[in-house]
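Record 1 of the preview.
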Amino acid sequence: MALHIMQGSSENDDLFEKTSARKPLHKYSLPKQESDSKTMYRLIKDELMLDGNSRQNLATFCQTYAEEEIHQLMDDCIDKNMIDKDEYPQTAEIESRCVNIIANLWHAKPSEATGTSTTGSSEACMLGGMAMKWRWRKAMQAKGKPTDKPNLVCGPVQVCWHKFARYWDIELREIPMEGSRYVSSPEEVISRCDENTIGVVLTLGITFTGQYEPVKAVSDALDKLNKEKNLDISIHVDGASGGFLAPFCAPDLLWDFRLPRVKSISTSGHKFGLVPLGCGWVVWGNKKDLPEELIFNVNYLGGNMPTFAINFSRPGGQIVCQYYNLLRLGREGYYKVQQGCYDVGNFFAEGIKKLGIFEFLYRSDPHTGIPAVTWKLKDDANVPFDLYHLSDLLRERGWLLPAYTLPEKCQKVVVQRVLIRHGCSFDLMELLLSDISRAIEKLKSYPPAKNLTPTGSFNHGR
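->
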């Protein structure tokens, strides 16, 4: 039987035989001719195969799993500019609903609270910090005092607060980790406060270990300081991770607007808020705590529009997806998802404990931190490798488990950490534990020739 050859195609239908595919992609200059869309999509998608599998990235705090409906909503909103509230009034309404729901979740009265969405919790932190500085400056000016030496007191913070302090010319009084204390304490906070302190930042889930800082205890100490020295210093809670965890899994924990000294809270929607990358939130418990001077009104998009943000144009899809999650999951659903992460974290921690050579700095506990496990080698582990070697070997199986040193006075302490997010199943963690066990045995059998230093990135994800 003779083969029938279809006629009429000027070029082979195989994507890899198209003219644009018969040479490497341009790297540093524009090509002269346009290319077939399907071929170009395939070639770029193939390059992306060289990236790691995001679900195996246990360094990042950011969400890497999403329901199909989330993907669809993101596609539906790909052309919506969040800032253009006159053109997209329903998306603006959905943003407002999210602010109200989150404010209510953090025990603020929606009628009194105000807030905004952001591109992530870094921007949210910047906005919270700016409001602190403006409130402090106004209070100092009312007393006729100088405002040229502001300072900010905090525990061990994510790099965004270092950026804030540098960009806005503020002295950062960061409390170092010391000994077995990896978070701030009321005593350490108070010792650094004075009349030039614009505020105190406390983190609900510090980057380095995953622990919650003692918001209630620090708030009580600041109340006492105010009575003794007439220093009225407010708190901003960086709830990048814990803001979407504590309300569901530790509802009795006092850290939010139930404490009058807490004036603002920021969080990441794209972490435990469970939405795709590019979403943060900041809320002030009372409108008076957001200085009016920081709010801009613009009319060149078709209507008079108040805005408080560092970024301007940004996508609306993540905001819509946040609303979807809030409605889709509700309190019950969020509790199931988040508590499930804690349960998986404890399952993983038990497996790490059985290996016998590790000591925990923190393990998954909804009342003291986020769903994470952080450990170091025991002082008497007596193994011919370090955590950098273990991290490096696990990459061969696609796992990204960061190994890093703690800051300042604990810089000699090398730790490893796993973040348990939605989508980290018991089965996946069992496979990871098996790979860790095999990697340890391999490192014992073939001891590394020398110590490693960190080469990969420590993914904070804001």
